[in-house]
Specification:
By secondary structure, this protein is an alpha+beta fold. It has one domain: Peptide methionine sulphoxide reductase MsrA (Peptide Methionine Sulfoxide Reductase, Chain A). It contains 7 helices and 8 strands; from the N terminus they run H-E-H-E-H-E-H-E-E-E-H-E-E-H-H. A 6-stranded mixed sheet has the order 7-6-1-3-2-8, covered by helices on one side. Strand 6, helix 5 and strand 7 form a beta-alpha-beta unit. The chain is globular and about 40 Å long. The N terminus is likely disordered.
Length: 235
């Protein structure tokens, strides 16, 4: 549904909203998972970034905007080139891009492993291959895009840890790839969840993720989201 021309999306969703609620799956059920055994110690330092892909970037951005210690979350594309980093092109599933978010975070307040804990538990379902819920295609793949060896090691060890613990009913299919580029998405995609809470897609598939974050990880949850539109600073 989301890959259609964005200008037609609101009108179409208004028409099919009720049918969508009945026919398609709701937000992925959250899974309570243990913290990462291999992780960076939280300590003051320069801001760091994490790039994660977990299906539609509307919901993933919305979740991490509510995580304490996160300073900024940008929806965008990674995996392809600048020339094809456009919503309509990415939606074809032929560009190599995945819808992603770039998270800027304070390493003294939240660790990389804690971000991954939220990512695997409530932001998306890491056992779905090239899809998330009603969205199908490689552009919706589950992927951790690391920027250094530390992030790579933490992500790799965490997937091994969770797989051995058997916390998911199916194998984790999340890819771990090096960061080559990240291209911010079009402005109308930024803060989409916060700015469009009554959108049927958001209401049925993404808002429950925010509630799951609050319930499962109350120590991580911030009631006040960091929004790009508001020009928010630190929390």
């Amino acid at each position: 549904m989301r890959s259609i021309q964005h200008s037609l999306l609101p009108a179409l969703l208004a028409v099919v909203g009720v049918a969508w609620q009945l026919a398609s799956c709701a937000a992925e059920a959250p899974v309570k998972i243990p913290a990462a055994v291999v992780d960076n110690q939280k300590q003051p330092g320069p801001m760091q970034t994490a790039v994660l892909s977990g299906g539609c970037f509307w919901g993933v951005q919305g979740v991490f905007e509510h995580v304490k210690g996160v300073q900024k979350v940008v929806s965008g594309y990674t995996g392809g080139t600048r020339l094809n980093a456009e919503y309509e092109k990415v939606g074809t599933g032929t560009t190599g891009h995945a819808e992603s978010v770039q998270i800027t975070f304070d390493p003294g307040k939240v660790s990389y492993g804690e971000l991954l804990q939220v990512f695997f538990s409530v932001a998306h379902d890491p056992t779905q291959l090239n899809r998330q819920g009603p969205d199908v295609g490689s552009q919706y793949r589950s992927m951790i895009v690391y920027s250094d060896d530390s992030q790579k090691n933490i992500a790799t060890a965490y997937i091994v840890q969770l797989s051995k613990a058997g916390v998911f009913p199916r194998p984790i299919v999340t890819k771990i790839d090096p960061l080559r580029s990240f291209y911010p998405a079009e402005e109308y995609h930024q803060d989409f969840l916060a700015l469009n809470p009554t959108n049927p897609y958001i209401a049925y598939h993404d808002l429950p993720k925010i509630d799951n974050l609050r319930r499962l990880f109350p120590d991580y949850y911030s009631d006040r989201p960091v929004l790009l539109a508001a020009g928010n600073g630190s929390r």
